[in-house]
Design goal:
The complex is a heterodimer of chains A (255) and B (419).
Chain A (H helix, E strand, L loop, with lengths): L1 H12 L2 H20 L3 H30 L1 H8 L5 H31 L3 H27 L3 H29 L6 H8 L3 H13 L1 H5 L4 H7 L2 H28 L3
Chain B lengths: L4 H17 L3 E4 L8 H7 L5 E4 L3 E2 L4 E3 L4 E4 L4 E3 L8 E3 L5 E3 L2 E5 L8 E6 L2 E6 L2 E5 L1 E6 L2 E6 L2 E3 L12 E12 L2 E3 L5 E7 L2 E3 L2 E3 L6 E4 L5 E3 L2 E3 L5 E4 L5 E3 L2 E3 L7 E9 L2 E3 L2 E3 L3 E9 L2 E3 L2 E3 L3 E5 L7 E3 L2 E3 L3 E4 L8 E3 L2 E2 L22 H8 L10 H12 L24
Classes of the chains: A mainly alpha (255), B mainly beta (419).
Amino acid sequence: MIQIARYLTIDLLKNRAVIGSFLLFVAIGWGLFFIENQPEKALLMVMQVTLLLLPLITLIFSCIYYYNSYEFTVLLLSNPIKRSAVIQAFFIALSISFSFAYTIGIGLPLLLNNPSPESVIMLVSGNFLLWIFVGIALFICTKVNDKVKGIGLVLILWAFFAFLFDGLLILIMYQFGAYPIEKLILILTFLNPIDISRISVIMQTDASAMMGLSGAVFVDFFGSMKGLVISFSALLLWVAVMYLGSVRNFRKSDL
Amino acid sequence: MLKHPQSLVGIFVLLLSCLVSQAATFTVDINKGTPSIKETLAHASAGDTVLVEPGVYREHTIIIKKPVTLIGIDFPVFDANNEKVEILIIGSDSVHVSGFIFRNVSVSYMNDLAALKVKHVKYGSIVNNKFENCFFGIYLEYAQHYLLKGNTVTGAFKNEAAAGNAIHVWKAKHITIEDNVLSKHRDGIYFEFVDSSYISNNRSFNNIRYGLHFMFSNTDVYSHNVFKHNGSGVAVMFSHRVQMIQNTFEENKGGASYGLLLKEISDGSISQNIFLRNTIGIMAEGANRLLLSENQFTLNGTAIDMKGNSLDNIIERNNFLANTFEIVTNSNHNINKYDSNYWSMYSGYDLNRDGIGDLPYRPVNLFARITNEIPSATLMLHSFFVNMLDATERLFPDLIPAELVDENPMMKPYIYDFN
């Protein structure tokens, strides 16, 4: 498995799309701090990029890469190796190369220009997000054999996590505003990895506003160290579920 | 050099007359068995000075009825042993007290027991004393022309109902409160019916309720104070012509916490203050004809919450930096004037390069409106969906007050160099 992952990683790091997204991250990372002289504001912009662009890029690229490696996968499977090793290798290689692109491309300027706990939390949750979305992409691709269908589905999922979900949450808040729905909302946010990362960052950057919440449930929950551990565990759980799901799908797939 | 040379002569005459009257100096030392402070005061006559050597004096309810000066040497201690008594009561004009430590005045639910009480007098000073674990620290009622300077008042209170104020002033005029350090009381400074007074350079922090509490007090000035980490910040209520200059309001966080709460006040000015990391920087309810200028709002949850019943205020030349919400209001109309502020959320351009943005700026955003109705929606902050809603609303204002607009938003923050 490690051998395959190594080959794939080397292949990916030479891939034009990965290099391209790395350069894009570098441009965004340095550019934002170059244009914006208030580090707090730049951090917010980095957050928007991380929450929107990063999932989109990883989802689409992982999908295309997996589908395009069809022949290679079939070739591998004809050898006497464990089936799960192949998909594990895909997951690891994609995660490593994108983590590399993100951490060096955006993380470096972020930590150099705004060395603060917020930046560290931003980076860690960004990496989690990336693994989750690699996992989601593989989960879909191993299930759906048709390339167009797969990519279409992945795009819909991205739209759902990136903004439709938040729209639904706000709708729920409006409809049930008169009831004590804080706990429900808390549980619901855990269904969206983008929301978990966003909230763990804003609990640091916009702490003053968060302290004003009458529903102190959130502040108690996310504001403390314990909350951070729980949100990161939730993200880790997401990674695990998506990873195991794709392994299971791959085992069952007709390849 | 002197405008009026005759005033110099006057001072000399005054000094001479002091020598002639031969003001006596008494020394009280508990370790040498001298008469007690009460006895000494009974013997002293007007204008005398009583020096108190270091030691623990367990006298209480000491009533000063003559204009004397009471000076502690190396901080002698008055200890009330947690009894329901007061330590020093000033009942004469021109009394000066300095250099003492007052300790352990018990909480009473019947009387406002204070370590040092000043009643119905004029012209005195309370300088460089320390108050530790007292119910009320310094308590002035019907006082005029008083100076409170360099005192440290530290309480040990946990709940509001059983806590007293560090400096409590009631029905007074011409009071100067300078350089005091006030903490862990109910209110740092409490003003009720106090006119023409001056509060400056105090530090008020970790108080349970307000750092400074102002009620029915007119024509006062407070400047250069630091209010940090108080239960709900600073409150200025039912007062007129109050000037607030160069104060720092910091770290007042919580569900009902404000840097500065304005309620039913008018004709004052709030200038050159710093509001840093408060849940709400300024909460204005029924605040009229105020001038808010050259203030710096940084990293607050809401910089200004301007309720609909506040009118004719002028908000100009302020810096709004990295606040979650800049202006919040519950009204659809705008009767205040916002002009020439720097808003860090402004994203317009400046083609003619005059430093003023070419597009007007609406500081109230839709999301602020939503969170005003559903506080828990704050959790959706910086979500892409919310940003989209905001952007559309700013283009076609429908729910946000369309008239609330800064026509001259600055492109760069002002550089103010105060504090």
